[in-house]
Amino acid sequence: MKIYLFEISKTDLAGRIGTIDTNHGKIETPAYVPVIHPVKQTIPSKKIKEIGFDLVITNAYITRNNYGDKAVKKGIHKIIDYDRGIMTDSGGYQVLEYGDVPVAPTEMAEFEQGIMTDFAIPLDKPTGFGLPIKKAEAYVKHTLKVCKQTIEDSKDNGQIWIGPIQGGEHFDLVAKSTKGLIKMGYKMLALGSPVEFMESYEYRLLAQMIIAAKKQIPHNIPLHLFGAGHPLTIPFAVALGCDTFDSASYMLYAKQNRYITEDGTRDLSDIVVFPCNCEICTKYTPDELRQLESIEKINQIAIHNLHAIKLEVDKVKQAIHEGRLWEYVIKKARAHPKLFEMVEVMTENSEFLKIGTPKFKERAIFLFDKEDQFRPEVQVFHEIVRGFKSKKEKILITNESSTKPGYLSHQFVNLSKKLKDFEEVQICQYNPQLGLIPIEISDIFPAAHHETSRMNFDPKEFTEFEKTWKIFFENNKFSEIRYNKDDEFLKYFVKTLPKNIKKKSFL
Amino acid sequence: MKIYLFEISKTDLAGRIGTIDTNHGKIETPAYVPVIHPVKQTIPSKKIKEIGFDLVITNAYITRNNYGDKAVKKGIHKIIDYDRGIMTDSGGYQVLEYGDVPVAPTEMAEFEQGIMTDFAIPLDKPTGFGLPIKKAEAYVKHTLKVCKQTIEDSKDNGQIWIGPIQGGEHFDLVAKSTKGLIKMGYKMLALGSPVEFMESYEYRLLAQMIIAAKKQIPHNIPLHLFGAGHPLTIPFAVALGCDTFDSASYMLYAKQNRYITEDGTRDLSDIVVFPCNCEICTKYTPDELRQLESIEKINQIAIHNLHAIKLEVDKVKQAIHEGRLWEYVIKKARAHPKLFEMVEVMTENSEFLKIGTPKFKERAIFLFDKEDQFRPEVQVFHEIVRGFKSKKEKILITNESSTKPGYLSHQFVNLSKKLKDFEEVQICQYNPQLGLIPIEISDIFPAAHHETSRMNFDPKEFTEFEKTWKIFFENNKFSEIRYNKDDEFLKYFVKTLPKNIKKKSFL
């Protein structure tokens, strides 16, 4: 009996590198799960495996309609000719598109067990987007009922049943739906249906939906995100805690001559130079690709699209390994103005993102602009400083030294020699994002492990600096502060100090 | 006789797509120019051509030392086995490294003519970085003297002589040096020596040096940038008007097991998942590459590095074709905190960047944050509005409609029906970056062609909005303004209006 279904080896923000153990080998996450059509697939599954995908998703409902009972004899792995992990959707997508399907959930579940899919999904009733709350509530209730029946009927045969979370933009329902599935014993969950959020560029809603679900999910349960496999959304989906995500876009786009790039989708006719290194883009010039005959052209664009998505996942994985997922997603947000709104979601959910962010990192973190004050690592440092108590009555604040930690800097050593009352003075350095850095703890991560832009920052934008400043001066009893009066950034905060603190110039 | 040496087909910011006509075919710019060692090269020049480079640079001084007069008989194309464009450095790099070389500039020039290089560089005396102004001045003077002699002695044989600009961080000298070379008749220039700027992450100084030179250079003269061929610097170099740039980093880094990525250089030992699609990264896993024997490993990393640099150039080219170079470089700035300081260089040089930015673009531009108010296209629109005169005495300001141009929106059509005094009211929409948009000109680019983030912007950061607002109300004689009093952004500016303008609420 497998004890650990999902093993996590590395985390950053709410993202993680993990492995899911299946009847067909271990699947490394985060993973993009390409959609394979059980009948009309034109890119061979062998090619898909070769590009580097170890898990695909296909449709059990269509399989059942086309192969009937023969499918159970053959098994889904032979039908789609793929020997690694297979996930099957049960017809929920068809329900969302056409309203209903003429098959009972129990029959569907029995069929999915029969074809020995690795990841099976009960026949749910997706809420989609834009449903009134009453109707959405009824759909969630129906789905939960089906899920309960399905998991009770399921055999312990190494298959993983995935509980489908519904609720759409009704986040209370999303939370309720999630809790219900966990209680039933689902070891993996899937969140529907973000496609409509994405089509209307409502990335913020999508993020809020993911967070509403994730807040209810224990760490050892992987989360799948339905239909969200575009380079634009993958980094955020992973950063917010999604482990796998499927999409048919590589093929749907290819049929419309649409070429996936890291920053969005382009019409093939708009491409002058391929911004890509993949096998297709090095084999053809854009003109040559445009001139291929239709089916060949579609397949070649689809293969490029698969490479583009795979590359995005690999970049995100490498960013997790490097502890740079925050930097990566904040940069990625500049792919589209509506995606940029995700920066606000990230800064507003610092507490949530803190859980998976390591307390210490090997590498220096990069601090660019105001949003980085909300980086989990930076927030943790603010908390430490907010609890710092000094025994001194005087404080001297300088800007950061380039040598870190600050107590090893020339700047500090010179102070210790020059200041006659050095022993009586609390020395602090400061950084706009990190706030006050008491010299005694200037070696704590990330005080000694960061790079910051030398920009003209507006102190009013640095609300975390202001909070820490306030608490720090309340916690301590300074009667004198020394600082450089030409420092416009610091001046703004010094002004807020009570009058009984003597302000002295120091250069 | 060739009349046009340099043909420009597309521009954006100060960047351009062009072709330089040489004795060995047309070279498309912007182009990265890989350094080929005339003796010790381990990546065959054939492979370099196959990766997609049509122009390489090699060292005439080393060639002369190793081949002597035989080099003239064979010609440089046979020596390095490359049949496309070849540029030769003349030993200036050695002068910078070792102080001097034992060869006279006239001999060097004669040699470069003899080996029939396509782009020849006179034997200059590079200033580098950190020279006192007197010394830098002497170097510039010496270089100008050599350049004058060289071009006077040169034959009209289809070779292109490149004038080396010196001056380093002394921008007046850079400008003087540039003017001198242009006066002598140089048809192509090269700017040295940014390597030291880059080693100390002084990207801002590098940018200022480029701008100091570019401001003196007519458009039809291409500019080469010495030693700056890293994905971090390429987008900015191109955006500021550099057309070609060489570097040996692909090989120098490879020798230290350093792997080039779009966001910087990584030690191969730190790579878990290759964030790249190139032939090397799809052939090996990181572990397999690490285990290759030394020379093979160096060559494979070098080939990856060449692909990574080539990809960056292709992405920049495609961004120029799409009119998205501004978006591309502002995003790229987030690769490193010191590179992020380039955002300030971009916003401070709006006038300079305006020259090459098309007045109209086919695609919508993306507006993300405060820096986009300084985008050339946005600046041009502000200028138009600053000259706008209304005959009306009342003004009504609403936020932007999602339908564009504004006069086609429901919002506007409803206003025209509802407002009893519609004919007497100047209708404006607004956008934080674009400022006021009088409805009559809401179809002008980019008023009708942009996407903006829906963020909580701080009005104080929008100084261009403030300027336009001030001028607009000075130019016109409004006695009444109607606006939504819940609109915090607009409220900030309404407060600045004189008391004799009646403020009325409008929803």
UniProtKB/TrEMBL annotation, chains A, B:
Binding site for substrate: D124
Cofactor requirement: Zn(2+)
Keyword set, alphabetical order: Glycosyltransferase, Metal-binding, Transferase, tRNA processing, Zinc
Annotated catalytic residues: D89 (nucleophile)
InterPro entries noted in UniProt: ArchSynthase1/Queuine_TRR (IPR050076), TGT-like_sf (IPR036511), TgtA (IPR004804), tRNA_ribo_trans-like (IPR002616)
Function: Exchanges the guanine residue with 7-cyano-7-deazaguanine (preQ0) at position 15 in the dihydrouridine loop (D-loop) of archaeal tRNAs.
Protein name (database record): tRNA-guanine(15) transglycosylase
Organism: Nitrosopumilus maritimus (strain SCM1)
Taxonomic lineage of the native organism: Archaea, Nitrososphaerota, Nitrososphaeria, Nitrosopumilales, Nitrosopumilaceae
